[in-house]
Amino acid sequence: MQIKNVPDDVHRVLRYRAVEAGQSLQEYLLARLVDEASRPTLDEVLRRAGDRAGGSIPLAASARAVRTERDAR
């Protein structure tokens, strides 16, 4: 993987952060990429949530159950 035309100031900041983390620039950037890829985007989360079937309890009944539980505390 190559990234071309990285602005000098961006390269400088990333290189500094890598040194501060005790890593080479390559190690630092790889860790950042792995971290980024391991977390779903908001669109991915919403898509997965939209694919799930809803519950079988009507909203009003659910709200009453939550209110009853909260009032019992």
Describe the protein's architecture and organization.
It is built from 4 helices and no strands. It has 73 residues and is mainly alpha-helical. It has one domain. Helix 1 packs across helix 2. The longest helix is centred in the middle third of the chain and has 14 residues. The chain is elongated. The model has no long low-confidence stretch (mean pLDDT 92).
Task: Name its key features.
68% helix; 4 helices; mainly alpha; 73 residues; single chain
Task: Report mean pLDDT, rounded to a whole number.
Answer: 92
Major β-sheet profile = none
What's the tally of helices? 4
- Percent strand equals under 5%
Radius of gyration: 23 Å
Structural class: mainly alpha
- Write the H/E string, N to C: HHHH
Global morphology: elongated
Helix fraction by DSSP (H/I, runs of at least 4): 55-70%
In whole angstroms, how far apart are the ends? 56 Å
| Unreliable stretches covering 5 or more consecutive residues | none
Question: How many E-type strands?
Answer: 0
Tally of domains: 1
